[in-house]
Amino acid sequence: MEEREIFSLGLGLRAPWEVVSQHLDAEKKPHELHLGLAADRGAQFPCPTCGKACHAHDFKELRWRHLNFFQHHCLLTAKVPRIRCPEHGVKRIVVPWARQGSHFTLLFEQVVMSLVREMPVAAAARLVEERDTRLWRIIQHYVGKALASLDLSELVAFGFDETAAKRGHKYVTVFVDMQRRTQPVVFATPGKGKQTVKDFKAWLEAHGGQAENVMEVVCDMSPAFLAAVGEEFEQAHVTVDWFHVVQLFNTAVDTVRKLEYQQITLPKATRWAVLKSTGLTAKQQQALQELKEGDFLTTIAWRIKEKLRWVRQAHTLRAARWRMTHFLHHARAMLTTAPALDAIRKALNTLQAHIPLILQRWASTYSNARMEGLNSLFQAARARARGYRNTQTFSTMIYLIAAPIQFIFNST
Q1: Helices (H), 117-178
Q2: Rounded to two decimals, what is the model's pTM?
Q3: CA proximity to 378, closest of 364, 367, 360, 391
Q4: CA 294 to CA 306: how far, in whole Å?
Q5: Which residue from 15, 16, 76, 198 has the highest number of Cβ atoms inside 10 Å of its Cβ?
Q6: Candidates 3.30.420.10, 3.40.50.720, 3.30.420.40, 1.20.1250.20; correct CATH number of 157-241+367-405?
């Protein structure tokens, strides 16, 4: 078998295309293997619109980067014809080894898509010796193509939360289908607040879903989020996930600790001693014991936070409602008039204002805990990449990590 036939088989070429020349340029670093492709003289080519076989009108020489041949860069060159279709006029054909408009072969793009799921795009670019901006164009094409065919016609419950995109209060709000066991992300949009919910409604309806079919929404206690859900998804019940309740009181406890630390010396390791629920170190356990034995405002805040566990352990909605009422009464009785405890007072007021939405957790089968787990994956990817240029690239990576778009590899 001749070497040209071997190259043709390796590239998966079909008639009328074949390898007609090869040349190794050893003067460049890395070395470049140039393969010339051509079609049989007088061959007909399918119209890219209707598929009808047509004769070539004219030709233009194009080049594509292919997978490395051993350690050498491999470049394909071919004179690609435009055909004159009786129905659709003059059109540039689509070659079988690359997509329209790309400067890479399909096999090269498939390898890139596999790499960027496992490592930062910049690292993948160094590995394949290409600019990361060119790789981002590949990624955005396939992710966009996959998302365009996303079917949300059966979506009846969703959860959403914002995740930090970069420093300076830059956020991306992520929406997940609560019924999907894996790859649940269905939408990611820059920013946070009411507009993100409106954008999601438009996205949902553009992909076969209907706002009136949504029966439940899981989110935090953000007034903007709650107002937007009420306006855009009128049929849905809103559930405030318990994670956000705990987060609310953790933040309040930490605020009390910071304010008290400005006035007196607290035991060492106090911060994590009052924030962690399990896995305390010896120093943290000692700090917690000193707090319990002392007369600290931080101790009062911590005890109130810990009383939340009693509410969470209720087995029925009725029991949860009864425990919530008694928790609020008991917690307020524990408070002193110290200004440092204002953060706890505010948290209790917020809790009371959202009791119906929080109690919905006992009637719901959905939890936003998975959303928080995904958030850790997004932030880990962001940390590995040392940040992203903009929220668009971060959103693209979120889709790549957790959206139901595995079939993008079949496109190559």
Answers
A1: 121-128, 132-148
A2: 0.83
A3: 391
A4: 17
A5: 76
A6: 3.30.420.10
